[in-house]
Design a protein that fits this description.
This protein is an alpha/beta fold and about 210 residues long. It is built from ten helices and five strands; from the N terminus they run βαααααβαβααβαβα.
């Protein structure tokens, strides 16, 4: 973590997948889907990689993504069944949810989510896990049409939150994204587990 700048932080930027929840639709989830619905693994992965960025950027709907991924030909299962399975892959990390929520409530800081997620999946996760109960701003790729590691998504987040980079702490499990944010002057925590992240946050005076 870059500790060169010691300005007192007022805002947390955080990812959703890998920090507060499991990833929404990652390789493990797709492997389970391939097995459950008996899909061709090579073709499914190829189709996913060709079109998923477009979905996460908010340029196509989930229905369109699934038509390109799975329902480009007749199947013996329905799109609602597949969508339900896809959504069910999301699981919470209770300790991290409690930590971020608790810091928000105790210290009154701003919380902004900066995430790469498609609109329908993002909305499901926000509502299902109560993220809108303590997150002030959602800068999701499908809302703003920029995806990490594009630095513009962080610039948009700074504008929306009305905060300067040196007053932000960014919690993210992918080192590259932390490095991109660091290039804008945003201090980052590479999230590995609850214990490590909570200790770093405590170093800024945020303890529960």
């Amino acid at each position: 973590m870059n500790r060169k700048k010691q300005v007192t932080p007022t805002t947390i930027f955080t990812d959703i997948g890998g920090v507060m929840l499991t990833n929404g639709w990652d390789r493990n989830g797709r492997i389970k889907a391939i097995r459950k619905f008996k899909l061709d693994p090579v073709e499914t992965e190829e189709r996913h990689h060709l079109t998923f960025d477009t979905y996460e950027s908010g340029k196509i709907s989930l229905d369109e993504y699934l038509k390109r991924l799975v329902f480009y030909k007749k199947r013996n299962f329905s799109e609602p069944d597949f969508r339900k399975f896809m959504f069910e892959q999301s699981r919470p990390f209770p300790d991290m949810l409690k930590l971020i929520r608790g810091i928000k409530e105790k210290y009154g800081i701003k919380i902004a989510v900066v995430s790469n997620e498609g609109r329908e999946l993002n909305n499901y996760r926000i509502q299902t896990f109560g993220l809108n109960e303590f997150v002030d701003f959602f800068i999701s790729s499908s809302f703003v049409h920029f995806r990490k590691p594009d630095a513009d998504i962080f610039k948009v987040a700074l504008d929306i939150a009305q905060v300067s980079p040196e007053k932000v702490i960014y919690i993210e499990d992918r080192p590259m994204f932390v490095q991109v944010a660091d290039g804008l002057g945003i201090r980052g925590i590479i999230h590995k587990d609850y214990e490590t992240t909570s200790k770093v946050l405590a170093s800024f005076g945020w303890t529960l």
